[in-house]
Amino acid sequence: MAFGAEELRVLRRALALALHPGRTSAADVQDCLRLAESLDEAVHEGARLRAFLVADLARYRAALPGTAAGYLTLLEEALGAGYRPDADDLAALRALRGNPVAAALLDRCWTLAEQDVRARLARGTSAAARRAVPAVPASRTRLLALPGGLGEAGREAERPPQPTAPEKEPADKPARPAPDAPKPGRPIPTPGEVFPRRKPSPPQQLAAG
To answer: For the residues 113-132, what does the mean pLDDT come to?
Structure first.
């Protein structure tokens, strides 16, 4: 992406305003807005150009080896536009490494591929480190890390309390008498003793008139 003299002037003015904020004229604001729109348009145009290059590159690669000259030219142009080579490109360049241009492009693509692999590994390692959580609380890490782990007393303290079974009464303990049962050895009174019969009174004789 190349800037003209007018665009460089606006860019220099925008950087100066960012570093030393102050009163900005309306003309400077409009120039900065036009420059931002031009940059957005250039970015979108670069993405469209890269998509066209990648599509043409795939067609030339599929027609190898007859299209070797055109494929190598397109690949070099695509790399300059930010394209990253894939496994198919590396395989095609290995097949064409007898060509000096293909050999130089193979070395360049190998370097780019190794950089991509290192970047992915670094991102994966940092993501795994963020997701990792300690399985043991921090206050107990030192104890669990000792040889043998927790002692018998510590393991007993860690176990939950077990429910205790109810105590059984000894078999030779005499059974308690029921509350309403009579005490042993005391005679049970008979109905006659409880309710004694009354003696009949003698009949009275009436005096003769």
So the answer is: 82
